[in-house]
Amino acid sequence: MPLPKHDELRIPIMELLNTKGTMKLRDFVEPLAAHYKLSDDAVNEMYPSGNGHIFYDRISWALSYLNMGGLLDKPKRGVYNINDKGKNLLLTPELIDSYIDNELKKREPVRGKNKNDISSNIKEQSLSNNTPQEELYASFESIKESIFDEILETILSKTPAAFEKLVLQLLQKMGYGGEIKNSGLLTKYSNDGGIDGIIKEDILGFGRIHLQAKRYKTDSIIGREDIQKFVGALAVAQSNKGVFITTSGFSKGAIDYANSLNGSTTIILINGKQLANYIYDYSLGMQVEQTIEIKKLDADYWDPMKDE
C-alpha cells in the first residue's frame, strides 16, 4: 500500500489523540502504520536525499497543520493533545480539511490577486497533497531534469573528440585512476581499434579500464551488435573491463547481452540520462548557483530546558 499523504493522516491522528490523550510525535508511527497496514520497508522509506523518513515527516506535517488550524494543542515541544474544538469537529470529519484550509488562509499575509503567485500556488498544493518538504524536493528534481537536458544539448553541440575527452575526465572525477598522474589516455582516431580511451588503475598500468564513447542524438538507440563489437575490441586489447558511454540509450538486447557476460568481461553501460546525472553529481563543468539552508530545532539543545 502506498504511503498516505499528510492530509490523509489528519483524521486518524485526531482519533488516536481522542482515544489515548497526550502523545509524542514518535508515538504515532506504529499505530498509524498498523492502521494503514504499511510494511516496515514503507515506514522506513527515506527521501532520495537521505534526509529523513517520508512517513515520519508526513505525520509531523499533519500534526503541524492540525495545530495551526487550532484543532490540537501542544503542551510542550513535540507533544500533542486534541482540544475541544478538535473533538467537536471530529464528529463531522468530512469538514476537517476545508476547516483547516480556511484557518491557514487567515494566517497568510495578503499577497494581492495575482493568480500566478508562485508562493500561493505552492501553499495550495501543500495543503491538499504534498508536504512543503516534498514540494521542495519535487521542485529540486524538476530543476535537475531541466539541467540534465541542458547538459546533453551542450554535449551534442561539441565535437566527438571533445566528448571522448569529457567522458575520460568524468571517470577520473569519479575516482577511477585515483591519484595516478596521467592516468587517462585518449587513443588516436587512426588506430583506436574500437577503444576511445584508457584509464590506468595502478601506477604500473597492470589494471586498465577501456572506454568507448558514442555521441548520438538522445532519441537514438545503441543495439546489441555495438556492444558485441566493443567486447571484441576489449579482447584484442587483452582487457576484461569496459565502460560504454553514450548520450543516447541502449536497446534491451544490448543491456541483456552486457548482463550475460558472467564476469569473464565486465561491461558497464551508461546512457544519456545517467551520464548527465554523473556530470551533475560529480560537478564536472558545473558550478553552484544557489544554496538553500533549511534548519530544524536541535532536540539536544531544547529538550533539557525546564518546561513551564
What proportion of the residues is helical, as a percent range? Answer: 40-55%
Return the average pLDDT rounded to an integer.
85
Number of contiguous helices: 13
Major sheet characteristics: 5 strands, mixed
Structural class: alpha/beta
Order of helices and strands: HEHHHEEHHHHHEEEEHEEHEHH
Supply Rg.
27 Å
Q: Quick one: overall form?
A: elongated
Key traits:
alpha/beta, 3-stranded antiparallel beta sheet, 45% helix, 10 strands, 308 residues, 5-stranded mixed beta sheet, single chain
Give a structural overview.
With 308 residues, this protein is α/β, with parallel strands linked by helices. It has helices at 10-20, 29-35, 40-43, 54-68, 84-89, 96-107, 118-128, 132-156, 160-173, 224-236, 252-259, 272-281, 299-302, and strands at residues 23-24, 72-73, 79-82, 184-186, 197-200, 208-214, 221-222, 241-246, 249-250, 266-270. Strand 5 and strand 6 (208-214) form a beta hairpin. Helix 8 (132-156) crosses helix 12 (272-281) and helix 10 (224-236) packs parallel to helix 11. The longest helix is centred in the middle third of the chain and has 25 residues, at 132-156. 24% of the residues are buried. Mean pLDDT is 85; it is low at 110-128.
Topology (SSEs and partners):
Blueprint: H1 10-20, E1 23-24, H2 29-35, H3 40-43, H4 54-68, E2 72-73, E3 79-82, H5 84-89, H6 96-107, H7 118-128, H8 132-156, H9 160-173, E4 184-186, E5 197-200, E6 208-214, E7 221-222, H10 224-236, E8 241-246, E9 249-250, H11 252-259, E10 266-270, H12 272-281, H13 299-302
Parallel strand pairs: 6-8, 7-9, 8-10
Antiparallel strand pairs: 1-3, 2-3, 4-5, 5-6
Helix pairs in contact: 8-12, 10-11
